[in-house]
User: Fold these one by one.
Assistant:
Number 1:
Amino acid sequence: MHSWRLGLQFLKICFIGAWVEEMVVLNNEVIGINIVMKPKDGQQNWRSFIENLVLVNQHKGNAFLYEYYELDGVIHLHERFENADAYQRHFDFFSAKVAAEFLSLFDVQKLDVYGDVGQEVKKALNGMNANFFSTIARF
């Protein structure tokens, strides 16, 4: 076997060994939420509402990722939380202080939940036709 092939085999073994070792220590409690929505007809102030909501959520510190994207009038919201407790805090705040205005501005078309959010939250989100995905593997 050529020496460069032996070197490549060695690198593959080292990389795979490091990868498997790394998989053992990963946090598997992260909660992910992806929402697809559209502004309701006639709503003009949705963009400033989102910008303010991002600042509020950054200050609250429950999410480690909270971002909105828009393409041709369709908005995607991506949220990530360290664990179910962090999501529960966000959910409680959202339900009490934000949900009414949020739902008056947007039609939620799709709600995907990644990870175990607990039965109480799951029951509440079922009313929005949420899809609940269980974790297989992640990094």
Number 2:
Amino acid sequence: MKYLTAGELIDLNKLTVKRHGGNFVPPNNLLHGEALEYLVETVQAEMFGEPLYPTISDKAGLYLFNIISNHIFQDGNKRTGLTGALAFLLRNRYWLKQELVRVEFEGRMLPDEQGGHDEILYQFTLEVASGTVPLPACQQWFAQNIISQS
């Protein structure tokens, strides 16, 4: 499996802020650098020789959730969290399905509202940022909405 480095995530943040607007505070726009290092280590972590996050969807969900929820950057966390998760998937020959689905988690549909591909992706990301979507729900959402390119 191919992972993203801290430097690559910083570069993704810089690109998203430049492209979509916002403030990039030099040199790397970090608000919580320790959270970035934690993410880079945790996504690859093992316990007793077994991956802590064994599936591609577990790892994609971890990138999205941790970047957004831990406010790793000064600005652009939602965009960077989503871009980071998608870049990780693409690097490992996975992508989002053409038709995204809402996912039921603990009796709640995620995202709350229906819509097309982009609307579901946008609403899901906003709901993660609102703090109402736990990590396991993010991982389940990716499990049901990605497909292998191989």
